[in-house]
Here is the input.
Amino acid sequence: VEIESFVHGALCYCYSGQCLFSSMLGGRSGNRGRCAQPCRLPYEVLDEKHSSLTGEASYVLSPKDLCTVQLIPELAEAGIYSFKIEGRMKTALYVAAVTRTYRRAIDDYKTSPELFEKNLDYYRKEIAKCTYRQFTTGFYYGKTDENSQIYDANTYIKEYTYIGIVQDVDENGWCKIYQRNKFSVGETIEVMIPDGSNRNLKVLGMEDEDRHAVESAPHPKQEIWINLGEALEKGYLLRRKE
Here is the structure.
């Protein structure tokens, strides 16, 4: 039997495929892949007499995100055939960064367990470049406890900004992108290479869709040509450290 196991992403308090809370509170059906994540909101807990048990609203239904990259050896040896990573309602940057990292970690372990251990900190750092919440290993080591929960805040940690994807490259090596967030000439951009490595390049020049020189790209989804000093390949993702 080919076993699939969920290894990375947001955890849910509701049974998979049975959530109506999102429809009732957020007007979007979790059963149709459009969850409004009502569990991420603050709530006050009351007893049967409607007396407050928490004193004030807190995040009583807000678990940490699942991350099991360090468990790949154990999961692989357990016979799991497919590792499932959350991608629904996530950005292309998130999906690319997480799947690329897990792919490299799996390949490294298959090459050599020693290589996997050597690169473990690298895997964690790459995953932390995505927008994420604090991490937990969920139920892989037994029942969860209070350390798998976030009670005092619901803030996502964001260290990198999504710039865009290389759509085309001209004869001079300039790259066309549809930018997702503002950036300017002179800033350093991190290019994500499919093999799991990264390359930091400075924005040497920028032109609008009419190939007129500009200093920044302030409008979302604006067509921009950028000169990074070397030609890249179509499909490469660009991000910038906050």
The longest strand covers residues 160-169. The chain is about 20% helix and 25% strand. The helical segments are 21-26, 72-77, 92-111, 113-118, 120-127.
